[in-house]
Amino acid sequence: MTDTSTSAPTTPDTGDDPYVWLEDVTGEDALDWVRRHNQPTVDALTGSQRFAELEAGALEVLDTDERIPYVRRRGEFLYNFWRDATNVRGLWRRTTMESYRTDSPDWDVLIDLDEVARVDGENWVWQGATVLPHSWDRALISLSRGGADAAVVREFDLVERTWVDPDGPDAGFTLPEAKSDIGWVDRDTVFVGTDFGVDDDGVPTVTDSGYPRVVKRWRRATPLAAAEVVYAGETSDVAVQVSHDHTPGHERDFAVRAVDFFHQETVELRPDGPVVVDVPDDSHMLIRKDWLLVLTRSAWDRDDTTYPAGTLVAFDYDDFLAGTATGTVLFAPDPHTSLQDVRCTGTHLVLVTLHDVQTELHTLVIGTWEHGEIAGLPELATVSVIDTDPDDSDEIFLSASSYTTPPSLLHGTSHGPVSVLKQTPAFFDAEGISASQFFATSDDGTAIPYFVVRRDDVAQGPTLLYGYGGFEISQTPGYAAIAARSWVTRGGVYVVANIRGGGEYGPEWHTQALKAGRHLAYEDFAAVARDLVARGITTHERLAAQGGSNGGLLMGVMTTSYPELFGAIVCQVPLLDMRRYHLLLAGASWMAEYGDPDDPEQWAFIREYSPYQRVRADVDYPALLVTTSTRDDRVHPGHARKFTARLEELGHDVRYYENIEGGHGGAADNRQAAFKSALAYEFLWQTVGSVSATSLEDE
To answer: 323: how many CB neighbours lie within 10 A of its CB?
Structure first.
């Protein structure tokens, strides 16, 4: 067998953590360790016919030309970024609405990223484009090496179809690789936050989390070093951003200082001085023309009125700043219903709500707040807003799908019906496959919803339980083509748990699981695992769990705190060492979620679940596959490396795979994503999928 020794090749002073050396992301010794661990995993999981089928099936879904090319309107054109088997890195392209309505739109390719990568000799991954509003003739393009969050920025001329030379007569805006934030003010001016080095006082211009602390106004044909500072925060902040509101007749500049992940200060930058928009610092805020919209995340007492958490309130913006505004409640939550998204069209607000994790859409006329509905929506589908035109029309693009219904793209207006514009073909035969919702009871008595997707002829089978439970991110039903192909159609049961930490029932569903309440998310997930067995859907030996990022932390906790509940775990791009997470890459930005491990009182509750510190020699752990990416500059790959090393040190068997590219998503292109997917499903079939059915009495 290939040597996977976890002994450090050198003996640095690492205190009580012998594997700190594995935090050296691209260090030679650390990468040697990675390669020694990758090869046995590849050898064990990739040689079968089933793996080849799983990989090919996933790649077909990712590469097919028949999937919907989702678009964003920018002026007269609809823009799309597209990757397929031929265009591995992708094409940035556009078309007209008339052409888009046809089965074969005439796409005008603006940037061929494969060709750019070939010329530059770089593995560029598309990070996005910001087109200059109203004139729509210039764009700021962000490209990252290997999928990292840090990106370079280049200006592109959409008329001439060329990069704007930074040294040429037009002096194109260009930024070197960094976690930058840049946006248009006008054709010759941008607001930019990036790593400027240190300021005049010797203070770093990025925060402890690695994001911009200082934002400057940068004018074309002037050196970046000469740009004027318009706003600055503290190094302890998460990030600072300044943006320009391009709404005709309402042009304004706003600075947002994110004190932590969930609290921020918003300031309107006026010529006569900054004006603080005095809303609760944990609320979500939207300023649209004459109106200020506030979505509360905790109870807000204002002028003898209490607005509960999850309430959407409207104020006249100028009156609010003057202290004379009266609020109008536009949405009030109830125990089963929460507000998930608010979008603007020219004359309407579009509210996306969840009722027991099922989508509903409502409209309000801006100003009169008259209620309406959008006709033509499919039933029993998750509907999300893809794009709107807030300045010029009531045009709206919507996406709708369910676990068994492929996505459709709907188009219409916020005051009229919508109709299907594009439809993704089915990637699996859904006949005889159904989705059901159940509720488990957590340790504190809270009802936890979860969805079960399975073939109707499968009463009990190998089961994959997916969860996330963090950052107020809701897990709503959606077409899981790869999961269905790789797992459900083959006889597996696929389950998604809506545990606390998410946003399925509004802000309090999330805030209950913050910091000292984190254990609630883990208790919820464990409760779902037990409920699946109690209902006879599976057994503990045939139950697997999967999650990534914050969900990877969830998997680490399940492994070390609830090992008896699972037969296998897939732990992807995870946080695991919660003693040092805040010191690694973007980790400091998440202390509002997890707490500060340097504070003894907070470490007292973090240590109760931190997986890296809880590994023991005398515990039987589930079969474990840990995956990460070297190029992930958000969640440090050291988490996965050190956890694996610690488990091996204490005699446990672990499968490990680290993609040398891929960023936080774990894959830089479709082929890498398909390989990663097949690796996980082959591992699951070899573990829980190979366990024979047992009776409930054997549990």
So the answer is: 8
Task: Check residue 631 and give its pLDDT.
Answer: 84
Give strand pairing partners of 337: 334, 355
- For residue 51 the two structure tokens come to 């793996």
Cα dihedral 277, 282, 286, 292 in deg (nearest 10):
-50
In angstroms, the CA 454 to CA 493 distance is 5
Q: Say what the pTM is.
A: 0.88
Structure tokens at 332: 């009030």
- Out of 144, 384, 442, 549, pick the active-site residue: 549
> Quick one: pLDDT at residue 383?
95
CB 147 within 8 A of CB 127: no
Question: Catalytic one among 348, 402, 664, 677?
Answer: 664
Instruction: Classify burial at 242, counting beta carbons within 10 Å of its beta carbon; exposed 0-12, middle 13-18, buried 19 or more.
Output: buried
What residues form DSSP beta bridges with 239?
258
Does the annotation count 549 as an active-site position?
yes
Q: Is-contact 591 645, C-beta < 8 A?
A: no
What single letter denotes the amino acid at residue 144?
S
**DSSP 3-state assignment of 678?**
helix
Helix (H), strand (E) at residue 349:
strand 348-355
Q: What is the 3-state secondary structure (H, E, C) of 547-612?
A: EECHHHHHHHHHHHHCHHHCCEEEEECCCCCCCCHHHCHHHHHHHHHHCCCCCHHHHHHHCCCCHH
Q: Which residues of the chain have pLDDT under 70?
A: 1-15, 661-668, 693-699
- The angle at the Cα of 468, spanning 462 to 473, to the nearest 5 degrees, equals 140
Contacts of range 442-448, beta carbons closer than 8 Å, 24 or more positions apart: 442/500, 442/520, 442/523, 442/524, 442/527, 443/523, 443/527, 444/520, 444/523, 446/500, 446/520, 446/524, 448/497, 448/498, 448/499, 448/500, 448/524, 448/527, 448/528
- The H or E element that residue 93 is part of is strand 91-95
Which pLDDT belongs to residue 693?
Answer: 67
* CA 3 to chain CA mean position, Å: 36
Strand partners, 397: 387, 411
Cross-strand partners of 440: 448
Amino acid letter at 175?
A: L
Q: Most distant CA pair in the chain: distance in Å? A: 79
Inter-CA distances, 667 with 118, 342, 587, 673, 674, Å: 19, 31, 21, 5, 9
Tracing tokens 């709503």 back to the chain, one arrives at 476
The answer to whether the Cα torsion of 121, 126, 128, 129 is positive or negative is: positive
Nearest CA to 330 among 321, 322, 339?
A: 339
Among positive and negative, which fits the CA dihedral 464, 549, 19, 17? negative
Contact 90, 673 (CB under 8 A): no
State whether residue 572 is helix, strand or coil: strand
337-381 pLDDT, tens digit per residue, is 999 999 999 999 999 999 999 999 999 999 999 999 898 988 878
Rounded Cα distance, 13 and 15, in Å:
6
The pLDDT score that the predictor gives to residue 122 is 95
Rounded Cα distance between 207 and 220, Å, is 26
Looking at residue 652, its amino acid is: H
Amino acid at 127: Q
The 3-class secondary structure across 482-527, one letter per residue, is HHHHHHHCCCCEEEEECCECECCCCHHHHHCCCHHHCHHHHHHHHH
In 3D space, the residue among 430, 403, 408, 434 whose CA is nearest the CA of residue 419 turns out to be: 408
Measured in whole angstroms, the distance separating CA 597 from the mean position of its chain's CA atoms is 24
Q: How is residue 40 written in tokens?
A: 């046995």
